[in-house]
Amino acid sequence: MNMLIIADDLSGAADCAVGFASLGWPTLVMLDARPTQAQVQVIAVDTDSRRLDAAQAAQRSVAAFHALARPCQRLYKKIDSTLRGNWAAEVAALHPLAGLALVAPAFPEMGRTVRDGQVRVHGAPLESTDTWRLEHADAPADMARMLGDAGLRVEHCALEQLRQSAGQLPRLIQSAQERGVQALIFDAETPEDLRLLARETAQPELRAFWVGSGGLARQIRDVPPPSSTPAPSKAEPAPSQLATVVLAGSLSAVADRQCEELQRRSDILPLSLPPAVLRQGSDHPAWPEWQAQVGALLEQGLDLLLRIGRDEQPDPAEGALLSANLAALLKPHFHRVGGLVATGGETARAMLGAVGIDGLQLVGEIEAGSVLSHPLAPSGGHRPGIVTKAGAFGSPEALYRAWRHLHDAQQSPS
């Protein structure tokens, strides 16, 4: 069985795919939806569509499906566990191609659960969180309404119904399809709930596709791994004089706490790039000075935490521009980077795209949501270890642990 994972940002694609890589499945993350002859069982593609309008995002998902679909393949539409982006439009566009959408965004290990069809974050309704309010103001975080507005007929499978339906879910799904249901939302509060859903819906003959975060992806265990697969390749340690760089593009409070913990527990040198400089990029008078400073520090082998600074009223719509120019600032000096941690999907994609990396071979996880990889086909033989992490995910120590792992690799080359 093959898996195709379609995600709307890079950190999400990697986070979702790493569960398969950790089981020994040959796994590839692609930054572009181009046909590939790579001999892998799991392909995750980043459509980079979170900031597009709904119609463009839907079109990219469909294009990715057509470009990468293979025989005997199941589809997993990776969505953000806090419902960011154009996920409903993308699911609606994929429905005619892949069948009934099995919608389960819960990620209990990260505090995201679903009860009564509504996402909760550490027990609080999603719409009460800063993450939701920052991008959606007072709009309700109602999955059924969002899917309905995208043109789908929706039903809800309550938690009690899920837990009492062991062995019966395929029949329940078939009945829903016969009633014309196009998307079925599942409650889930524990990993066991998601494991039950994954086990009951893994039959290859089922005309349905999964819609979830990294939580459900980790529970798709009943499909046996390949009988003979090569062990995941290990990231090649870089020479010890190279530096480890942490790029923090996310403006979330979670990322702020992780940066603070990284600084408290390490000797990493923090640099906060003014948004005014990043907005103008190379056109800003201070750009050459900042770029030279970054280059000089890396030449000394110093580890850096490069952060996007804050305005009084940060605008999430500027994320792509600020991330692109943060990547452009580092690009001339990337050959001095032996390890890269990129938090925030836009930031990771911008950096990899800037230096010509269009695919990642996954190695494993440092912790849930922090995915370790190395470039699939690097130019010039430069193969830094790369950790991608969603900005609003992870423990307070997540960035420190990622930095520590890559930093230690620089100090112990083999």
TrEMBL record:
One Gene Ontology molecular-function label: ATP binding
UniProt keyword list: ATP-binding, Carbohydrate metabolism, Kinase, Nucleotide-binding, Transferase
Pfam families cross-referenced by the UniProt entry: NBD_C, SBD_N
InterPro entries xref list: 4-carb_acid_sugar_kinase_N, 4-carb_acid_sugar_kinase_N_sf, NBD_C, NBD_C_sf
Residue intervals of the Four-carbon acid sugar kinase N-terminal domain: 3-219
Residues of the signal peptide: none
Domain of life: Bacteria
UniProt keyword DNA damage present: no
Domain Four-carbon acid sugar kinase nucleotide binding residue range list: 245-399
Similarity annotation: Belongs to the four-carbon acid sugar kinase family.
Name of the protein described by the UniProt record: Uncharacterized conserved protein YgbK, DUF1537 family
Source organism per UniProt: Pseudomonas delhiensis
Organism phylogeny: Bacteria, Pseudomonadati, Pseudomonadota, Gammaproteobacteria, Pseudomonadales
